Amino acid sequence: MRKERPVTYPELILPGPSGLALSALCVGDDPPDINEMAYRVGQLATVLVGPEHNVRQVHSDSYLYWSIHRWIRSGHQTFSMGMDLAWGIAHTEPASSTFDLLPDIPADGMYVSVPPVFDIGDETNGWYRVEGFFLTVNDIRVRTDGTPSTSPLVSIGPSEASMYDVRRGITVVCVGEDKSPNLSERIERGEAWDRDDWLVFFNLVPGQPLPTGEGTSGASKAAQFVYNLIHLLQNTTELAEEADPDRPEFVGTDRKTRRERERQHRKGRSVHPHRVWHPSDLPVTPDPDAPVADTPVRKVSGHVVLGHIRRYWVRNPAGFKSLGTRSKGSQTYHLVARWVRPHVRGEGPDARPR
Question: 202-220: per-residue pLDDT in tens?
Answer without folding.
Answer: 889 888 888 765 455 778 8
